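#lab-general

N.A. 3:47 PM
ok so I finally got the sequence cleaned up, no stray characters, all 257 residues accounted for. can someone with queue access submit it? mine expired

B.Y. 3:52 PM
send it over

N.A. 3:53 PM
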Amino acid sequence: MDLQLTDKVAIVTGASKGIGRAIAETLAAEGMRVVAVARSRALLEQLAAGRDDRCLVHAVDLSLPDTASTVVEASMAAFGRIDLLVNNAGATPRGDFLTLTDAEWHAGFALKFHGAMRLSRAAWPHLCASGGSIVNISGIGGRTGSAEFTIGGAVNAALLNLTKALADRGVRDGVRVNAINPGGIVTERLQTRVRVLAAERGIAEEAAQQELARTLGVARFGAPAEIARLVAFLASPQAAYCQGAIVDADGGQTRTL
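B.Y. 4:20 PM
back already:
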């Protein structure tokens, strides 16, 4: 299937590793020019290696109020247009609600929610000009509450609501806005959970991963590339009728409507 993304420009946040890196690599393979955004310049430069002038590295902290505008300005200066914004940056801590601090709550919203909101606002005029789109990477915790994931669930729920609100405006302005809720994806963060479980049970990591998957009610965990391919589809004209869609890519873990 031709996704018709060649020479279009994408901003991808959290692009240094995990899902974000897979998204950046997949979009580049589809012919897009990519603005890769994250805190780690070294990891971003590894991503950009061999991609010549088709990948712009922008190492910044998106939790800071003025960063979004600098990302958009750099993107326009380098490529002259923005066709896609993928808001993927942000991880939130698990833990007992009674012990999570105000600072942890603030940090969770500052990067994942406020970073996405500010970037969407800064990029919006350029997305209007190109007839572009936004894909927000949220998480199934925004749909199903969990006692150990209060910060992440609240942040993800807010991002899903923002997706719907921006999609509503996007009908008028010609910008498509959709979201993906990944479930358990084999990233460094999941592997840390697996190692902890393996140590607690005194079992091999492979067995711990299988046990965790069974506990969550899925046959297996997903790969970052599976989320990346879904982003590419939602960004393409093939998904032109998708507006305000929230896709649970979780192996069936979410069983509610």
